[in-house]
């Protein structure tokens, strides 16, 4: 894809596949679920080819995804936030010179990893731009799975993802291409449900899927081909490890992110409409948890897949922030 280079890096016991292009300050792009490095295809080109100030854009396939291998996908306990941040540190060790800090950009689970990276190892990060998922620090009384089950019931996707093999069987039966299409075309500002035996509540069964203008059949082909090789378990393990992550992060209760940061979310994003989140983002809470939060942008009529849905705008916002350094 227009000069993007692919290579494999040994780090933290994994063989991490990265896509990269450009020269200059390093920008590490971390994807979410059910995504891949490919979700950043537009930003890689924009960052590397930026006329005023080129960057070295690097987007890995995260643990359990795509062409990154070595993760024990049958053991969800190896997918805690400590494992995921450890992978990023290992990757940075392998691709940076001693003392070099990176800019980090995250989306969805990539944003969660990036927040924790900046909390655990702020010495490795120069600046952070996160998309779609604000800081979601540890509630001492309950983990996220318990809270989602209490709020939304057994059909909520996070609850449905907990039983090993269950959701994988349903997604496989539905078909990988169809499942990817249904994930990426969800744009309702409401909870995401996956009722057992029905599939996607917003688009059950064989309901036809019309792709939005920002997503082509060739894009679906790439995501589906990779998922057909790896299966679904690697990415779903991130959700299955949530309780263990909750147990292991007790020492970081009320810790702050002390890295200069920018946050962008769409006003149609389901996360933006979780009760309390909008007030947190736009009120004082977010700034208290991220003292060096420089900017919050709420994009109009944009849903969760923000870096793919509005690639040019997101790329511009990222560069505007990076050029401050």
Specify the structural class: alpha/beta
- Could you give a short account of the major beta sheet? 8 strands, mixed
What's the helical proportion of residues? 25-40%
Q: How many DSSP-defined strands?
A: 8
Q: Uncertain runs with pLDDT below 50, 5 residues or more? A: none
What is the molecular shape?
Answer: globular
- Measure the end-to-end span: 29 Å
Task: Label this structure with key terms.
eight-stranded mixed β-sheet, 325 residues, Rossmann fold, globular, alpha/beta, 14 helices, 8 strands
What does this structure look like?
- There is one protein chain.
- Strands 1-2-4-3-5-6-7-8 form an 8-stranded mixed beta sheet, with helices on both faces.
- By secondary structure, it is of the alpha/beta class.
- It is globular.
- It has helices at residues 41-48, 81-95, 109-120, 144-152, 157-160, 166-174, 176-184, 217-230, 233-240, 242-248, 277-282, 285-289, 306-309, 311-322; strands at 5-11, 14-21, 26-30, 56-60, 102-107, 125-131, 261-266, 293-299.
- It starts with a strand and ends with a helix.
- The relative contact order is 0.16.
- The longest helix is centred in the first third of the chain and has 15 residues, at 81-95.
- Helices cover 38% and strands 16% of the residues.
- The protein has 14 helices and 8 strands.
- The model has no long low-confidence stretch (mean pLDDT 95).
- It has a single domain (5-323), classed as Alpha/Beta hydrolase fold, catalytic domain (Rossmann fold), CATH 3.40.50.1820.
């Amino acid at each position: 894809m227009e000069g993007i280079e692919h290579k494999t890096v040994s780090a933290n016991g994994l063989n991490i596949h990265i896509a990269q292009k450009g020269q200059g300050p390093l920008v590490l792009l971390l994807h979410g679920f059910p995504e891949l490095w490919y979700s950043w295809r537009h930003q890689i080109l924009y960052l590397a080819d930026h006329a005023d100030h080129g960057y070295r854009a690097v987007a890995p396939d995260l643990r359990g995804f795509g062409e990154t291998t070595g993760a024990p996908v049958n053991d969800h306990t190896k997918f805690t936030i400590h494992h995921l941040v450890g992978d990023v540190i290992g990757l940075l060790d392998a691709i940076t010179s001693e003392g070099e800090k990176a800019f980090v950009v995250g989306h969805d689970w990539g944003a969660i990893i990036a927040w924790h990276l900046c909390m655990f190892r702020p010495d490795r990060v120069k600046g952070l731009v996160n998309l779609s998922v604000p800081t979601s620090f540890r509630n001492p009384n309950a983990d996220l799975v318990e809270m989602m089950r209490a709020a939304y019931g057994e059909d909520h996707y996070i609850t449905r993802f907990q039983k090993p093999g269950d959701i994988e069987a349903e997604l496989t039966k539905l078909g990988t291409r169809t499942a990817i299409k249904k994930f990426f075309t969800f744009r309702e500002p409401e909870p995401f449900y996956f009722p057992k035996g029905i599939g996607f509540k917003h688009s059950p069964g064989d309901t036809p899927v019309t792709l939005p203008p920002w997503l082509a059949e060739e894009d679906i082909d790439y995501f589906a081909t990779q998922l057909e090789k790896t299966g679904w378990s690697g990415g779903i393990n991130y959700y299955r490890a949530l309780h263990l992550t909750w147990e292991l992060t007790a020492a970081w209760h009320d810790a702050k992110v002390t890295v200069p940061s920018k946050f962008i979310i769409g006003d149609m994003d389901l996360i933006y409409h979780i009760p309390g989140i909008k007030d947190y983002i736009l009120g004082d809470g977010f700034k208290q948890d991220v003292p060096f939060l420089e900017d919050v942008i709420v994009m109009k009529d944009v849903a969760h897949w923000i870096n793919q849905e509005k690639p040019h705008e997101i790329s511009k916002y990222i560069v505007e922030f990076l050029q401050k350094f």
